[in-house]
């Protein structure tokens, strides 16, 4: 659950066609009957035992055929753009599911310039109209993605409705009127909310965490039969459209017994043969188990944010050699109960860790490693460029007669506004699908920044956080043959591979891993006879094609500020602070900030340090421009630049 800086947040089978057609008519109101006495069957806690999250046999031939378990979060994408991406990219490259942004009617905050977090403030449970599209658009997306082998997981906001700052700012995106504690379109009234109408003060006290308000958001009384019925009807409306799973936003703030009662009401997903897959946002922290990840694993999977905070920091700092031990011993729950990611929409805006906007290719490396390591269900982040932490997605502006406000622009991965980070991973999800739960066999390590390992006899992967290419000859359990490098290319329908092919012979393989990059080979991606790989992998030139400029500076900041390197070359933003290289710190290294950028060897440039506040305000350091050149890299093609804030 986003805890925003202000007051907000937070071929289709005949079976599916028939159900979706009926569901398109209207969203249901709250159920009148109280079904809380029904037993609550356990929602799936892993893809392995989850019919709704994996293909299921069906005698009528209507079962959906899907890819594996890898999830991609297409943050704030329009429904029609998600559908197109499923067909063109996600299905062919092995993604099993897409997490989409909340589809319910949301507040429209024009005075706040339509921040991303307005979508986490529900006005009603109608999916008729949001800034990402209509109900018909949503249903079409679900069906098209399903045809491509990709499931839709919805980000479900069930803990709360709108916040204090949203009073008087209606109507909502579908035209509904509302006020805090009064939502006639659901309907909810004052009695459907908790009695503690203030923010959480003690984050270790379950009564406060689960009974008081999160950043002034109206906290639903999820112990109420009426509220449980309304939430279950909303989720079942989505299930009727073919939604196969839910990320439960802010689950930590809802008592586990309340969620169990809601989950017990969920219908089976048409064509999948089981109830929806559930994974829950339960941030780790202080207090008893009832408000920590282990307290929710009996209901479904949980997001293990230790992966982000610990493994993400190791990847950011180039300490790849520590990652496998951390996922063995340092996580919050068992592997088959966890969903993991390097970053998400919250952390990339607020945490001093790793994101594509801050670190570029290192982030790509981190997401690739997440798909290769053995812990949890991996989730890939894909997002857009932002200049302030609140900034909403790229927009086409408002539309006459449409109450949704600034409408989200179609995704253009060739432009500058959308990052589309998942595309840089190529066919890497097929590696995760191919290796399954095969064990890790460590094969090579070259310092802290370079590792290689097998996943049983099904896959081999090598990762390089250094500034120069790494050529290694390693033992491997892969059978003899020539393999497509899925970290750097895709596999066509004819079996062709548009990346280098690497030969395994008598239990050995020689690969060349690019700087801040990966090589990944698996048994389901052999270079096909008659449809060969693009080229043979081979050793690189001895010269450094690019040098990693590694910045380490000391700067005192106030909470929320970050430090960036801005300079005279495009890689440093061409003097635009919003496009500069973001540096990172943490509680152990502050006030030292670090970051990297790759530059062609010999590049001369000028630069300065800037501090950027959450609202985008920029503070430049004093004095003349700093002059530098990447002309003396070390053996790893890395050159250090250090300094103090002036």
From TrEMBL:
Residues 28-62, 383-408 are annotated as: Disordered. It comes from the Bacteria. Its EC number is 3.2.1.1. GO terms for biological process: carbohydrate metabolic process. Residues 45-62 have a biased composition (Low complexity). One of its GO terms (molecular function) is metal ion binding. SUPFAM superfamilies: (Trans)glycosidases (SSF51445), Glycosyl hydrolase domain (SSF51011), Starch-binding domain-like (SSF49452). Residues 541-646 form the CBM20 domain. Residues 385-399 have a biased composition (Polar residues). It catalyses: Endohydrolysis of (1->4)-alpha-D-glucosidic linkages in polysaccharides containing three or more (1->4)-alpha-linked D-glucose units. Its cofactor is Ca(2+). It is an enzyme of class 3 (hydrolase). InterPro entries: A-amylase/branching_C (IPR006048), A-amylase_C (IPR031319), Alpha_amylase (IPR006046), Carb-bd-like_fold (IPR013784), CBM20 (IPR002044), GH (IPR017853), GH13_cat_dom (IPR006047), Glyco_hydro_b (IPR013780). Keywords: Calcium, Carbohydrate metabolism, Glycosidase, Hydrolase, Metal-binding, Signal. Belongs to the glycosyl hydrolase 13 family. This is Alpha-amylase. It comes from Streptomonospora mangrovi.
């Amino acid at each position: 659950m986003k805890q925003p800086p202000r007051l907000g947040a937070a071929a289709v089978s005949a079976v599916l066609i028939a159900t979706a057609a009926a569901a398109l008519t209207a969203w249901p109101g709250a159920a009148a009957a109280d079904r809380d006495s029904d037993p609550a069957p356990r929602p799936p806690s892993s893809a392995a035992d989850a019919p709704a999250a994996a293909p299921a046999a069906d005698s009528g031939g209507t079962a959906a055929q899907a890819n594996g378990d890898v999830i991609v979060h297409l943050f704030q994408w329009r429904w029609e753009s998600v559908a197109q991406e499923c067909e063109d990219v996600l299905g062919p490259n092995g993604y099993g599911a897409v997490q989409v942004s909340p589809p319910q009617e949301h507040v429209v905050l024009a005075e706040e310039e339509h921040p991303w977090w307005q979508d986490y403030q529900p006005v009603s449970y109608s999916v008729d109209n949001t800034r990402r599209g209509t109900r018909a658009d949503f249903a079409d997306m679900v069906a098209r993605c399903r045809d491509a082998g990709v499931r839709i997981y919805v980000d479900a906001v069930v803990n709360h409705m709108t916040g204090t700052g949203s009073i008087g700012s209606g109507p909502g995106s579908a035209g509904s009127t509302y006020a805090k504690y009064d939502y006639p379109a659901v309907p909810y009234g004052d009695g459907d909310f908790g009695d503690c109408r203030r923010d959480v003060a003690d984050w270790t006290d379950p009564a406060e965490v689960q009974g008081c308000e999160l950043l002034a958001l109206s906290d639903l009384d999820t112990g109420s039969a009426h509220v449980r019925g309304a939430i279950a009807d909303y989720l079942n409306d989505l299930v009727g459209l073919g939604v196969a799973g839910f990320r439960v936003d802010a689950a930590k703030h809802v008592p586990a017994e309340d969620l169990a009662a809601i989950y017990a009401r969920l219908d089976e997903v048409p064509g999948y043969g089981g109830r929806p897959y559930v994974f829950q946002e339960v941030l780790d922290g202080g207090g008893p188990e009832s408000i920590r990840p282990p307290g929710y694993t009996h209901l479904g999977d949980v997001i293990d944010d230790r992966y982000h905070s610990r493994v993400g920091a190791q990847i950011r700092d180039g300490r790849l050699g520590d990652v496998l031990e951390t996922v063995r011993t340092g996580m919050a729950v068992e592997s088959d109960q966890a969903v993991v990611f390097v970053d998400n929409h919250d952390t990339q805006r607020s945490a001093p860790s790793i994101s594509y906007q801050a670190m570029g290719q290192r982030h790509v490396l981190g997401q690739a490693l997440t798909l290769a390591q053995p812990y949890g269900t991996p989730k890939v982040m894909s997002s857009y460029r932002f200049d302030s932490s609140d900034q909403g997605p790229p927009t086409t502006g408002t539309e006459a007669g449409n109450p949704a406000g600034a409408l989200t622009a179609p995704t253009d991965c060739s432009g500058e506004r959308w990052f589309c980070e998942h595309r840089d991973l190529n066919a890497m999800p097929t590696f995760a699908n191919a290796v399954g739960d095969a064990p890790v066999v460590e094969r090579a390590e070259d310092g802290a920044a370079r590792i290689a390992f097998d996943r049983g006899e099904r896959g081999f992967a090598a990762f390089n956080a250094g500034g120069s290419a790494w050529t290694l000859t390693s033992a491997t359990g892969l059978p003899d043959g020539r393999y497509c490098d899925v970290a750097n290319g895709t596999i066509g329908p004819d079996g062709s591979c548009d990346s280098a092919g690497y030969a395994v012979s008598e239990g050995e393989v020689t690969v060349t891993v690019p700087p801040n990059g990966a090589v990944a080979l698996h048994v389901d991606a052999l270079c096909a006879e008659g449809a060969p790989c693009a080229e043979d992998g081979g050793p690189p030139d001895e010269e450094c094609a690019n040098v990693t400029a590694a910045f380490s500076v000391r700067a005192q900041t106030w909470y929320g500020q970050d430090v960036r390197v801005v300079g005279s070359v495009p890689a440093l933003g061409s003097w635009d602070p919003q496009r500069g290289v973001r540096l990172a710190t943490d509680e152990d290294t502050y006030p030292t900030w670090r970051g990297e950028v790759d530059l062609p060897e010999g590049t001369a440039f000028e630069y300065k340090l800037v501090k950027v506040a959450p609202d985008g305000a920029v503070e430049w350091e004093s004095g003349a421009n700093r002059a530098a050149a990447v002309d003396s890299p070390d053996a790893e093609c890395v050159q250090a630049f250090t300094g103090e804030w002036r």
